[in-house]
Amino acid sequence: MLSRLAALTGQPGDAADMEYFLSSPKALKKTPYLLLTKAYANEPSVEGYSEAVLLFEYRVSIGATRVFATSDPSGRRNLFAAPAERATLAARAVRTLLQSGAHIVHIAYHKGDLELPSESLSETEQVAVAFGDPSPDAALRRSQRMAGKRDWSLVEQIIPSYLPIEPTFDETIARLGHLTRRNLRYYRRRTEKEIGCVFVPEVQIGLDDFLAFSRACTYAVPDEIAAWRYRALSLIETPFLCGVHDSSGRWLSMIGGRRSRTVTEIDWQMNLDGLEKYSLTTVARACMIEHEASLGSTRLYLEGGTPHSITNQFVRETVVELTAKRRSLYTHLLTRFAPRVFPPDNYVGQILRDASYSWHLW
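^ BioF2-like acetyltransferase domain-containing protein, sequence as received from the core. Prediction below:
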């Protein structure tokens, strides 16, 4: 159903392979919730629904936390609505959860490419109206003695989203900086010459050998995560596992991910430790870009981003992040002990720890 809703709201492919994401070790530590909007009469819908928001409630050893957040930093897999309605839907979802007992709610959504009329309300104004306030300033003027006080904040971030793939490798990298183009060509030629690297578009490997390779890689992940990466390929509609090996057949790098129509998404990459001089990340990606171009792909996403300079020429898109919290002793304690409750890379935890964050009273 969610895939059909995504197509209905102009987000085809964004809800693909949800079973894969819900099966990850990180996702299994949280409880998923799907909030649906009932469609009006004669409104386009899927099984009677027109919009959806997918959130997760954090759990700790003692149980549920009543802290809800979306899971995809890019915003593409979190909220499904027409671009002009996304801010309003996010605000309605936040309001519903807080009224139902939630203490903190965080929703990130993709703003969309639609150019709205100049007289349209801004994202912040839409959220304020949905919360029942004509403007954020009006919320700030509310009585401090009001029961059920809540705070909310909205931030827009421009992120590097994807690399456009052209019909050929040379056309694709032509948009990249000179040094990046040079490195993509140089390191591939070097590994081909010195250790005989070969690109394999469809890697055939057993679980035991896959785990052994994972353990030998730089920044090796726990076996639990590596095993999930291997087994979860069967949950993906159109998965890929490609790699690079040397002339002896020793694996140097592997890349796993998903394809949907003409969109390719890299979920993870593993590189053999001790061969940093060959820049295996660059080599494998150079091979993969060439391969994806030959398949007719048009976009290449890197799940979770990358510090690689290739992102300098990624298409930029806007992600809107709406956070709201109840003014309660529980929320105060969560804020105070955020470093112990939330991992360092958890965005909700980062927001709670940031004393400079700007909040509106609701």
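The chain has two domains: 2-158+318-361, 166-297.
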